[in-house]
Design goal:
Radius of gyration: 26 Å
Number of helices: 4
Number of strands: 5
Structural class: alpha+beta
Largest sheet: 3 strands, antiparallel
Helix content: 40-55%
Strand content: 5-15%
Length: about 170
């Protein structure tokens, strides 16, 4: 009779150890799946942002990260500050497009010269780290994501806008 009580206690201890290990393994698998899903979504965000930048006007570059079609894809902890859009010349060097504003300025020749240099558009995810949910509470783990960037050839770039007869400019891309 005494031997059975001892055996039952050992069985309970073994069950607790094994169940804890299995649950930790299960949570680790779920966390890794969420991490890989997030990294894939960051890759998709850079791909879509580059595609939008190739067909939208250069002055819309700061609005692209806030578009609903992109922001709905952002994984946990990712925001518009983590997305960088740049315009590149034929050699891959960045072209200064800071003069392209939603309201055109008087020096249109300079803008045309800069506009004609743009050959590629790059969208890059910067400073994004995935924060694990369960594992971070136990072990304080942060997942470093690889640097994702997408470079596409420039297409229409929204075609340089002209001022209409009313003085308004097009605002759609």
């Amino acid at each position: 009779m005494m031997k059975r009580k001892i055996q039952r206690g050992v069985t309970q201890v073994e069950f607790i150890i094994i169940a804890t290990s299995v649950l930790l393994l299960l949570f680790a698998i779920l966390e890794l799946a969420a991490y890989f899903y997030s990294t894939q979504m960051v890759n998709e965000v850079t791909r879509r942002a580059a595609r939008l930048a190739t067909v939208c006007h250069i002055s819309d570059r700061d609005d692209i990260p806030q578009l609903d079609s992109l922001s709905n894809l952002y994984p946990s902890g990712f925001d518009s500050d983590n997305l960088e859009i740049a315009y590149l010349d034929a050699n891959g060097a960045e072209v200064d497009v800071s003069g392209f504003l939603s309201t055109p300025i008087a020096d249109n020749e300079t803008l045309q010269a800069q506009f004609s240099q743009v050959r590629y558009v790059r969208a890059r995810a910067v400073d994004y780290s995935y924060r694990f949910v369960v594992l971070s509470t136990l072990l304080d783990i942060t997942g470093n994501t690889p640097s994702f960037e997408t470079i596409l050839p420039a297409e229409s770039l929204g075609i340089l806008r002209q001022i209409s007869s009313t003085g308004a400019t097009r605002t759609d891309c």
